[in-house]
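Figure-free illustration: sequence to structure, shown twice.
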Amino acid sequence: MSAGTNDHANLSRLDGMAGARRHFRYFDYVMAAFVAILLLSNLIGASKLASLGGVTFGAGILFFPVSYVIGDVLTEVYGYANARRCVWAGFFAMIFMAFMSFVVVAMPPAADWTGQAAYEAVFGSTWRIVLASLTAFWAGEFVNSFVLAKMKLLTGGRHLWSRTIGSTVFGQAVDSALFYPIAFLGTWTHEQVLTVMVTNWGMKVLWEALLTPLTYAVVGWLKGREGVEVFDENLDFSPFAKAPQA
């Protein structure tokens, strides 16, 4: 099976409306993976600065782009309407994670517990970081999904690599352009913000390109088992549109 082409004789073509109404066998698992990786990459990786080969970066960058890969899989296999549901699920999960972090960090520690400072260093976030994360994720993911869905229509379902990489170029550009200024402008110099913003954008796009063979494998496997090819024709692409009822 050649993922990303429209020549699968055993796949039924669905438009975006029909795809939104259809019950898929593996959709719930893919959505759970998307939300889990999104939360874990923000919770575990965001607080640590790593350095490899003289390049310093947030350790979360190694895993956060995987959520974009899964976002690509969601849009490619299940269509924009179903990907939109996952973005909103991830967005509200991040809000709850931020709320829980604030509450737990703020609770008075027990008198004999000595880990409060370390706990605050790992799980404590300023309101600017939280706002930046939420805004950048929401906008970047919707741009990523929109571009991929539109490119699929333009390419007739061919050249999956062009859609996954192309959508990441735009989606991650929006993500980085929002996150770093919101989070650090005024704390970092303009030059530092721009340098980190461009560097991280480039690394995320490169990471997406390197993961292209994995994306092909996952997309091909899921399409073969779901038995459909979704093209987002006749669909409202607004992030706030309601999914059609079955």
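We now fold a second protein in the same way, so the two outputs can be compared directly.
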Amino acid sequence: MTGTLKTAGFDGETLEIIAFRLHDQEFCVKTTTIREIRGWAPSTPIPHSPPEVIGVMNLRGTVIPIIDLAHKLGMKSTVANERSAIVVAEVHNMVIGLVVDRVSDILTVQGSQVQPVPEVTASFDKSFAEGIIANENGMICFLNLARMFKEREVEELAA
């Protein structure tokens, strides 16, 4: 093995990311996928919806699904409170709301700072993550919303 640091394939790029917390972990996504950040507001439950769908809300005349991102990532569901936020994102031309504990920061990072997700086990599915960003405050898991929400799945959320 050489002495060079293996990266996740963003070399030479400058990435604008939005960081947020779920429980005690930090995650981020590219700002280009984000439409807006809203304060927590209750949503309307939908019968027989997938377990990660909390419900729907009206966003300026458009009904959008609200997703419990922690549950989608295999974590304990988020219990929303006044510090929670809804990160409104566009994935596969569909607008969805992602419930997070709180938004931490908007950062600019160099692509070379994004390291690949290590192999944990053969059955470990790392497709949701673009990589890991190590900074002075800890580690940030860089999520890929397009892979997390398959195109067909997003269409079903909208139905």
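Summary for the second example: The chain has three helices and eleven strands.
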